[in-house]
Amino acid sequence: FERPATHITESPASSPSGSHADQFEPIPLPRSVESVCDESQSLCADEPEINNGTQRKILLVDDNPINVQLGARLIGLLGYEVDSAADGYEAVTKACGSNFDLILMDCQMPGLDGLSATRKIREYEAHFPSRECSRPVPIIALTANVSESDQADCRESGMDGFLPKPLQINVLKSTLHTFLG
């Protein structure tokens, strides 16, 4: 993120046919994670943190490292401790081996997707109820697919809520407040 590229082009000479049809126009790339987080931090500056008591622990599951970096920064700005997992298998291992207050789960990941990982976590909770926790950990879907059928699939897998991507600080804050108080 030191010096992000601002556009990508391909010259006609480098394409196999040499035609102008293969030429790509410059396109702007997303801003750096730091600039998005700095902007989000200023949005939260005037509001108190949601979590001003005991440190609540959130597991953020996403196969995209940029999404993890951005999500972790936003969660931290809201006063929560965050751990991350890069895929569904790691999410199941971490969720079943630690006590998290909430899990933010990407739905589409290679290997074990978020819906399948949620089902496995729910199976584990049913067979090995936690003494520290009187109810299953809330699992919130993270996805760019926002149709009603996608939301229904999330609920059927055992997820408790739904957050659209890209994450927006105010929506994230409201969701965390709803599930964690």
Automatic annotation (TrEMBL):
This is Response regulatory domain-containing protein. GO terms for biological process: phosphorelay signal transduction system. Residues 8-20 have a biased composition (Polar residues). It comes from Puccinia triticina (isolate 1-1 / race 1 (BBBD)) (Brown leaf rust fungus). Residues 1-25 are annotated as: Disordered. The keyword Phosphoprotein applies. Keywords: Phosphoprotein, Two-component regulatory system. The modification 4-aspartylphosphate is found at D106. SUPFAM superfamilies: CheY-like. Residues 57-180 form the Response regulatory domain. SMART domains: REC (SM00448). InterPro entries: CheY-like_superfamily, Sig_transdc_resp-reg_receiver.
